[in-house]
Structures are given as C-alpha cells and as structure tokens.
Amino acid sequence: MDIEKGSEEKKQKSKDDIPFTKFQILRNVFVISCGFLLIFIPFQSITNLQSTLNKEEGLGTGGLAIIYGALIISCMFLPSFVISHLGCKWTIAGSMVCYLLYMAANFHAVWGSIVPASVIIGLGAAPLWSAKCSYLTRMAIWYANLTNSFAHHVMSRFFGIFFMVYQTCEIWGNIISSQVLNEQVEDNFTLTEDELRKCGANFDPGIQINNTNLDRPDNSKVQLLCLIYMASVTFGFLIIVFFLQNIPINSGEEKSKGKLLPSLMVETFKHLWQSPYQKLLVILTMYSGVEQAFIAGDFTKSYISCTIGIRNVGYVMICYGIVNAICSLSFGRLMMYVGQIPLFAFAFVVHGGTQTALLLWQPQQEPVYIIYIFAGLWGTGDAVIQAQINGA
C-alpha cells in the first residue's frame, strides 16, 4: 500500500511540474501548426515552380540544391546549439525570418540573389524543424502524463494533426499560384506527338524544346505572387511570436550552451555510430529528401509543366496536398493499431509502383486526370514518410 501511495504521489508531483494545462497544450499544437502552414504555403508553392519559373541556366533547380546543401551543414552544427540558447519558440521565430528573405530574393531571381538567400534558408531550416519536433514532443509527453496515455501514441497523434494542417499548404499555396498565373498560357494550345515524347521520363532540361507550356509567366505576375507569399510568411511569423507559449530551457540544454560546435558534431556522429535505429532513420530521412525533390523539381516540370502547362502546376499539386493532408491524419491514428513498419512498407510500395508507372507512361494532354492520380499516389506515400519520421 505504501508503495502504491508513493507511486501515486510521484505521478501527481510529475503532473504538477507540467507548465501547461491540457487546453494550453492543444492550443500550442494548433498555433505551431498554423504558423508553419502560413510559412510553407509560399515556400512549397514557390519550390514547385522553381524548375519552370527560373529554368534559365538551371537557376531554379540550382537554388534548390544549394538550399539542401546548406541544410546538411546546418543539421550538423546548428540545431542543438541554437535551441539551447534561444529555446524552441524563438528558434522557430528566428528561422522563419530566413524564409521571408528567400521570398524577397524571388522578386529579382538571379544568381546573385538566389544563392545567398538559398544558403540562409538552408541554414535556418534545420533549427526550425528541430525546434518544431522538440516542441511537439514535449507537448505530447506532457499531454500523455496529464491524460494517463501512452506518450508514443499521443506523439503520433500530435504529429499527425500537425502534418494534416501543414500539408494543406500545398492546397492554399497552389490555389494562389494557379489564380495569379492562370492567364499565361493559351487554353487551346496542343502539343504534337514529337513534343509530348520529350516530356515525362524522356525530359532533358539541357535541351531547348519548342514548347510554350514552359515559357516563364509575365514578370509582373511573378512579383505579385512573391508579394502575396511575403505577406503569408509575415503573418506566420507574427502568430508564432504572439501566440505560441515558450518552453523553459531545461538544465540539459543549459549545459550544452558551453559546448563548442565541433564538440556537438562529434557527439552527433558518436550517437549515430552507436545507435542502429538512428542509422535507419538517416536512410529514411535521405529518402524523404529524394522523394520530395522528385515531386517538387522533376514531376512539376517534366510531367505537369511540359505536358499541360505551368498554369496547371498549382491545380495538380492541390490534389497532392489534399491527399497528403487526409492521409497524414489517418495514418497518424492507424499507427497506433498496426505500428510504423507496415506503414513504411506501404509507402515504399506506393512510391515504387508510382515511379515504375511514370517511367513506362508516355505523357498525354488527355485525359488530364492521370497526372492527378499520380500526384495523389505520391502524396499518399509522402504522408507516411513525413509524419512517421518526425514522430519516430
């Protein structure tokens, strides 16, 4: 009886140490989800368009490559160091400024503006996502303690909710881009069979082809798009600053403040060497980057823009976003019953089958719904990859 009483007292004391109520925790999950939504509405949409909007000299895809190159460096050095100094909230807010600078650079997209902006956003992305994961994980653990639930289940549910909201950025961002760029291509434009054969898996970005579907929209339209996107990023930043509650920096994080960045890097590789699960997560994370690069860079240009025009990129990616959002929430709940491994296996089968079909399929302008089906299938697999990796 004394043991049980002591256990209850310890549990109650643990609950008393939690700085937020259940309502505040759920509110914070909602706020951080909305903040990320408003930041990634413009970023995801402009990313989808980069390979077509800035195709000259490979500026669009080159800029994206620089972003992820800088992101790799940032992942090794910055997240732990920055979060330990600023805390999760202010790390998120500070990193969002990097996205604002990137949107501004697209007003005049040349190598001199895109390269530094890509480096800045790449360096800011790792602390942003690390702080988000840390914040949601803390919220999930505290909520599990308050409700006497399993932390892993609550964590999966919170990340599922977050990615359901986050993935709708594909919907809203592409609605905006589609409406702004809608008048740039003639509705009755039809490609010849020879031109269509140069789309899809046979598309070669190094060869100039006579296809007006790939023409850059009027510059005034592009600048209007960037202005709208900058406003969205600004609102997302303000939501985080004024409505997200900060998490006190714990003693473990305070201890890491005194460590030099090389020491953090050594500890990172030491942990990677000792943990087989971390090695597997690295492989999954690398795949996540590859599959997102494919849908944003290759699919949007080779299959959508080349075949049915840049004005339809937004509409097809809206389909991708809707499917992704629905599946993110659904798979977050399903994980509690089937586990993560079957979901990952399902995602790889869906992506593998879709990739095989895209290799064999010769793009056609009609029927258009086939391209939408491919986008939806890719969104289904991506929903599993994103939500489950972040919740692992």
UniProtKB/TrEMBL annotation:
Coiled coil: none
Gene Ontology terms: biological process: regulation of muscle contraction; regulation of potassium ion transport
Name of the protein in question: Uncharacterized protein
Similarity comment: Belongs to the unc-93 family.
One Pfam entry name: UNC-93
One cellular component term from this protein's GO annotations in UniProt: striated muscle dense body
Transmembrane segments: 25-46, 58-79, 110-129, 224-244, 312-331, 337-361, 368-389
Top-level lineage group: Eukaryota
Locations listed in the record: Membrane
